[in-house]
Structures are given as structure tokens and as C-alpha cells.
Amino acid sequence: MSSKRHFPWTNKVGNEDEDAKETPTFKHSTNPTEEDNIEKVFEPPASMPVTRKKLQAIAVFRWRSVLTAFSKSRSHLPPLGLRPRVVGTLFGNRHGHVHFAFQRDPHSQPAFLVELATPITGLVKEMGSGLVRIALECDKEEEDKKSKRLLEERLWRTYCNGKKYGIATRRECGPKDWKVLKAVEPISMGAGVLPGNRDEDGDGTESEGEIMYMRAKFERVLGSRDSEAFYMMNPDSNGAPELSFYLLRV
């Protein structure tokens, strides 16, 4: 995907001719400001004809000023949560629900972690039958939520291949979730089973069952402010993603 940014121009270059013909006024000060120095450099005297090169120099200077201001403003913004290509991990206890995490890279905290109401055994069966499409929907609410990003929504209606599977909940990454993500960190693509957590008493029993996981890279596609899609990148699927994940705000 490509993105374009358009910078609004308050004055066109073609109008500089009229501005340049006005008699310049300079402030008399013992400590001249940077703005005064800029006027002295770029604003010619009234007796001097305004050439095309001078107009171009003024335009270039203003263009650089816009870029500088834009770069400074971006430096104060928080980094974006996800890139066009992200790491997706599906995991869950064999007898529990599905957890789905999207990470900026294998070492970062999840930018989006959601717990589905779908049992992981049911999702495995769906995936065994062919392509799987998971859609999460949330509702648009009051006006003051316009600034909320789609990934920050908390409650989602869940659909898997058109069938409703209850409510999914976005959650923070807890110690157990992070332990799973760290365990599969070296894996770029694959599926398997992790051993269950041992009981703290050290008697060898497992307090939780085995954890099933699937991990792959996903292509992130932004449809609009209210829609995003994640397509699993699998070189063995002949171009058709085996798993797709859709976020919709309706």
C-alpha cells in the first residue's frame, strides 16, 4: 500500500509577485529575531525587480519550513502500533478459548490481544476444513469516541466463516500470555503444542493443560478508520490466505 500526504499551501507562488512589491518594513531592535533575518534575506527592496529565481527561492524556503515543522511534530507523536506486515500468534489452552495477538515484531509487546469466545478445538476443526475467515465487529458509539483507534475497542462480536461465536474481549498482555509469546518468539511460521505450566508445589503435576499455538506473518490492510484486515502470508497456499482476520466498526 502506498500513502500520500498533501500539505495545504496558504499562499501560492503566483501571488508572491504582489507581496514582493510592497515596501519592506524592518524592525529596529538590538536583538533581531530570526524572522527579521529571514525577511532581510528573501524580501528584495522595492526598487529591485523581482525575478523568477527569487520567487523560486522563497517557495523552496517555505517548502523546507513546512517539512521541518512536520518532522518535528511527528517526533512528538507515539509510534504506530503496527506495521504493514506484522506477527500474528493464535494460542490457547487445549480446553480453553482462543487468544489472538498481533505484534509489531517478535520481540515487542502485543499491539492487539483479544480473547475469543471460540474454543480452540473448534477453531482447529474449522481450519482443517479449509479457509478460515474471522470477523470481529464493534459498534460506533458517541461522538467523543471519534479519536479512539480501531485497535483500542474493547468488545467485539465474533464471526467465524459466517457463524456467530459470542463476544470477544480485548485484553492487556498478562504474564501468562507473555510467557507463551516468548516461548514461540524464535518461530517465524509454524504450529505446535507447548507443555502446560507446572504446579508451583513442584510435585510435577500440570496446573494447566498443553497450549496449542499457530504463528505466522500477516499482511495488514487498512480499509478505512473503521476497518482493517490481516491476511496470513503462507507461501504454500498458492496465493490464497488460509486465515484472514477482519476488524470492523459498524
Describe the structure in your own words.
By secondary structure, this protein is of the alpha+beta class. It is 22% helix and 32% strand. The chain has helices at 16-20, 34-42, 52-75, 120-128, 175-183, and strands at residues 85-93, 97-103, 110-119, 132-138, 155-160, 163-170, 190-194, 211-224, 227-232, 243-249. It starts with 15 loop residues before the first helix and ends with a strand. The protein contains 5 helices and 10 strands; from the N terminus they run H-H-H-E-E-E-H-E-E-E-H-E-E-E-E. Strand 8 and strand 9 (227-232) form a beta hairpin.
SSE topology:
Elements: H1 16-20, H2 34-42, H3 52-75, E1 85-93, E2 97-103, E3 110-119, H4 120-128, E4 132-138, E5 155-160, E6 163-170, H5 175-183, E7 190-194, E8 211-224, E9 227-232, E10 243-249
Parallel strand pairs: 4-10
Antiparallel strand pairs: 1-2, 1-8, 2-3, 3-6, 4-5, 5-6, 7-8, 8-9, 9-10
Q: Which short descriptors sum up this protein?
A:
single chain; 250 residues; nine-stranded mixed beta barrel; elongated
Radius of gyration: 28 Å
Largest sheet: 9 strands, mixed, barrel
In whole angstroms, how far apart are the ends? Answer: 24 Å
Count of distinct strands: 10
Element-level helix/strand string: HHHEEEHEEEHEEEE
Average pLDDT taken over every residue: 74
**How are the strands ordered across the major sheet?**
1-2-3-6-5-4-10-9-8
Structural class per helix/strand content? alpha+beta
Task: Tell me the β content.
Answer: 25-35%
Report the principal-axis shape.
elongated
